[in-house]
Amino acid sequence: MMLEDVLIEPVLSEKATLLREEGKYVFKVAPAASKTEIMEAVRKLFGVKVVSCTTVNVRGKLKRIRTRAGRTSDWKKAIVRLAPGETIKVFEGV
């Protein structure tokens, strides 16, 4: 799997913002990506030292539009912890 295919997009939520203060960054990743692939992709794409990675398979939510029932897609989330003092400048707005 190519490095660009592993990371889909960053997750920008209140919880992700609070985690960023602890040196943890949250990404939406490919469902087939392993922890080592995710860590390698973050290390090479952003030039930072990655300490650990936690992954979560997020189940889609049930949604209704009038009488039709539907469901949002399942997705995989990765929480990447960086070494102390390391930051990803894209998130910081620099």
Number of domains: 1
**Main beta sheet strand tally, sense and closure:** 4 strands, antiparallel
In angstroms, what separates the terminal alpha carbons?
A: 29 Å
CATH structural class: Alpha Beta
Number of strands: 6
Kindly report the average pLDDT value: 93
CATH architecture: 2-Layer Sandwich
Which features would summarize this protein structure in a list?
single chain; 94 residues; alpha+beta; Alpha-Beta Plaits; two-stranded antiparallel ribbon; 4 helices; 6 strands; 29% helix
Q: What does this 3D model show about the protein?
A:
With about 90 residues, the chain is an alpha+beta fold. It has one domain: Alpha-Beta Plaits. The chain is built from four helices and six strands. The chain has helices at about 5, 15-20, 35-45, 90, and strands spanning about 5-10, 25-30, 50-60, 60-65, 70, 75-80. The longest helix is centred in the middle third of the chain and has 12 residues, at about 35-45. The radius of gyration is 15 Å and the shape is globular. The protein starts with a helix and ends with a helix. The model has no long low-confidence stretch (mean pLDDT about 95).
